[in-house]
Structure formats: structure tokens, C-alpha cells
Amino acid sequence: xxxxxxxxxxxxxxxxxxxxxxxxxxxxxxxxxxxxxxxxxxxxxxxxxxxxxxxxxxxxxxxxxxxxxxxxxxxxxxxxxxxxxxxxxxxxxxxxxxxxxxxxxxxxxxxxxxxxxxxxxxxxxxxxxxxxxxxxxxxxxxxxxxxxxxxxxxxxxxxxxxxxxxxxxxxxxxxxxxxxxxxxxxxxxxxxxxxxxxxxxxxxxxxxxxxxxxxxxxxxxxxxxxxxxxxxxxxxxxxxxxxxxxxxxxxxxxxxxxxxxxxxxxxxxxxxxxxxxxx
Length: 279
Description:
mainly alpha
């Protein structure tokens, strides 16, 4: 049976209180609706900023988005880039952005959306912020903290739509965490044939495991998968500052994209570079 609506009190003070309570409920709903509308508009402005043709246009759109929603994660990330924050200042800002993003998502999201976090549009700004933090740890040489961030992201989103495994694996090898590196390669087994990061990391892993024959076999696979990477490994080419926006497997663009992160691991093990340089 349908629920009956509460009857309107007839006495003066009670009736007035009843009316005021109803008005307050309506006002609360209106405010909540307006806040949500502002958040939606802010995110639309962020998307427009991502496609802006000039830095000036992008800056204006980001500022307008933050006026509507000061906690917008993507807008705060873009503002941090505009401010040119580096090192500890950037790490502090990223941590604050992530904390705000987690608060906005709410505890329920971390219970119901795991381990497919990226599959929900509302979680993606938060995941982007975490990747920014992990990358900042990595480039700052704080590899253990980077590994922790990458692993937590994989726990949130087991399909790894962001490709954080391609940054995690070299960090593990740079830290001599061979068992963890092997587990990651087993988890994403197909990448050991098709990914420049995994094929070249496999060469290093076999070398560090004391398996020269296995390293030699892995090198054959790596050279076949992407022959362009070896020039960066041997120091014949330097990775450019500007990376391509996209790449195909086995292409020069793929090698350029991952040369720096692979060199992070290889340079920690000069003996492997010597072995690679041998004919």
C-alpha cells in the first residue's frame, strides 16, 4: 500500500513549525542540487581546458572551474602544473589533492567500486592524481614510495587501464625486488611479448637472476619487439623532452615514451649494460 502523507497540524505553533521544517528540507535539497550542478559544470570546464588551444584559455577555464568547485581534482592538478610546483612542494600539493578527492568520493566508493575503480567515471580524477604522485616519487628517486603508490593503484583497479605497471616494473628492478618483478610479469604475461617495457625488463631480470642464457634469449625477444629501444639503452640516443601523444607497439614512439623509465632500472645495474653492449 502507498504510504500516507503526513497530515498538516491544525494548531498555530505546531503548524508553523511543520511549515518551517518543510521549507528547510526543500532549501537543503535545493542547495544540494545547486552544489551538484556546480560540480558538473566545473568538470565540463576542465574537459574544455584539456582541449584548449592556448595556455591563457586553459588557465581561464581552470580558474572558473575552481570558482564553481574549489575541490575539483583535475582542476587542482592543472593549477599545480601552472604554478610550476616541484619536489616536496608538488608532493605536498598532490597529497592534499588526493585526500580531498578521496573525501569527495566517500568511503562507500572504496568498498563498492574496488577492484574496478577506473570503470567509474567519477573515480578517474582521483586515479589521475595518484598517478601524478607516483610519478613524482619516481622522478625524485623515492622509488619505494613510488612502488607503494603503484601497487595501491593496482589494488584499486586490477585491470590497470592507466598502465601503471609499465612504470612499476622498472622501479622494482631498480630496487632489486626480483620476486615482486617476476610476480608482476606473471600477472601481465602477455606484456612480456608485446610491451617494450616488459620485454626489456625481462632481459634485465634474467641477468640479475644469474641466468645469462635466459638473458640472451630474452634479448632476442626484446630486439624483435622493439628494435629502437637498444640505442637508448646503450646511450647512442638521448630521450627527448617532449614525448609523443600516442604510439604503436614496436614503434619509435613507443621506445621514446618508455626510454627514461627503462633507463632508471638499467642504470642501477651497470653490469647489465656492459653485457648488453657485448656483441
